[in-house]
Design a protein that fits this description.
Layout lengths: L3 E8 L3 E4 L4 E7 L6 E5 L5 E2 L2 E2 L13 E8 L4 E11 L6 E5 L2 H6 L1 E11 H8 L4 E4 L3 E11 H12 L2 E5 L2 E5 L21 E5 L4 E4 L2 E3 L6 E8 L5 E7 L4 E8 L3 H15 L3 E3 L1 E5 L9 E5 L7 E14 L2 E13 L1
Parallel strand pairs: 11-14, 15-23, 18-20
Antiparallel strand pairs: 1-2, 1-7, 3-4, 3-24, 4-9, 5-6, 7-8, 8-9, 10-12, 13-14, 16-22, 17-21, 18-19, 22-25, 23-24, 24-25
């Protein structure tokens, strides 16, 4: 029999550790700039006879650091490391939290301007408290005023197609998935260390909404956009229009190079495979960006390796589960 184990550490004016939690829910995805979640404590917390949260001088408050460790006896694994963003007033108490992106939401830029820069240099200028792994792509002139650092990251995603998120308190700015060879970077190659997790339908997969589809029967096109050193754009399209379109962003790529990359991407997207999501136990931690190997012994078609787009962790009286949303194949 597996026995649930949890440890919630909150660090503010003092350090508080809770080894019992009624509910915990965590949502993580590369599609979200901010990773977040909630915990519900089993009962009202008091400290020396007074309310630890709702008082003139609360012991635990917004902005305090929070670390969430979950597992089965006797093991614990860190599933979240961030900051408290909201404290409820009801009983049982609900605490909302976000990852380190919350700090960048609080960091305001009064005025910043540079004649010529790269994404990597820009972020290193603006962010001092975190390690940064970013593409070294030239973006030319850049200026910003009266904005938060998180708003700058949103602007970078909207205008340059570069996705930002934190993993283990390291800020990544670039692609959704890193496999060691980043095709569109003009500078340093980024290697994002992810793991491969094996999951079997009917065994470690306890619930699923997976289905086998045939994208080769559906029109797919790929649009490629290259940001050039002189801050101009080059665009090209490959595939059959009328269906789904995937947009890829590059830096300093010629039209010929992009057509080749687009053709390879269309071939990858047209590979038949699985879509959807599944639920599994919490024995092996899964994060977005990981590669999950799926196998169904009853159906030889249900197999392959897929990138993880999102994970939702639920922990509490109903058990320990991870809801995993799959993206495209990580290998064929």
């Amino acid at each position: 029999m597996f026995i649930l184990k949890s440890k919630i550490t909150i660090v503010g004016s003092d350090t508080f550790v809770f080894t019992s939690v009624n509910e915990c829910n965590i949502q993580k995805s590369w599609k979200n700039l901010t990773q977040k979640g909630t915990i519900k404590l089993a009962k009202k917390v008091t400290w020396i006879g007074s309310d630890g949260f709702v008082s003139d001088k609360p012991l635990i408050k917004r902005g305090d650091k929070i670390k969430i460790e979950l597992g089965y006896e006797p093991n614990l694994t860190t599933y979240f490391d961030g900051y408290i963003t909201k404290l409820g007033i009801d009983n049982p108490l609900v605490i909302e939290f976000e990852d380190s992106m919350w700090k960048l939401k609080q960091q305001m830029i009064e005025k910043y301007s540079v004649k010529n820069t790269t994404i990597k240099s820009l972020l290193n200028d603006l962010i001092k408290d975190f390690e940064i792994v970013a593409v070294d792509a030239e973006i030319g002139k850049f200026s910003v005023s009266n904005s938060s650092v998180s708003q700058v990251l949103e602007y970078i995603e909207k205008n340059y197609g570069l996705i930002s998120y934190f993993v283990d308190n390291v800020l990544y700015c670039g692609m959704a998935y890193y496999t060691g060879d980043t095709a569109y970077t003009s500078g340093d190659k980024i290697k994002f260390v992810s793991k491969s997790v094996y999951r079997e339908v009917g065994n470690s997969i306890i619930e699923n909404e997976l289905e086998y589809n045939y994208p080769s029967d559906v029109p797919i096109s790929v649009k490629c956009i290259s940001m050039n050193s002189d801050n101009t754009k080059t665009e090209t399209m490959y595939g059959i229009t009328g269906g789904s379109t995937r947009t890829l962003h590059f830096f300093n790529k010629s039209e010929t190079e992009m057509k080749k990359l687009a053709k390879n991407e269309v071939s990858r997207l047209q590979a038949d495979g699985i879509t959807g999501s599944f639920k599994t136990f919490g024995d092996t931690q899964i994060n977005f960006g990981d590669s999950v190997d799926i196998y169904d012994p009853q159906n030889e078609n249900i197999k392959g390796s897929y990138f993880v787009e999102a994970v939702e962790i639920s922990f509490g009286v109903d058990g320990f589960r991870q809801g995993v949303t799959l993206d495209s194949k990580s290998s064929t």
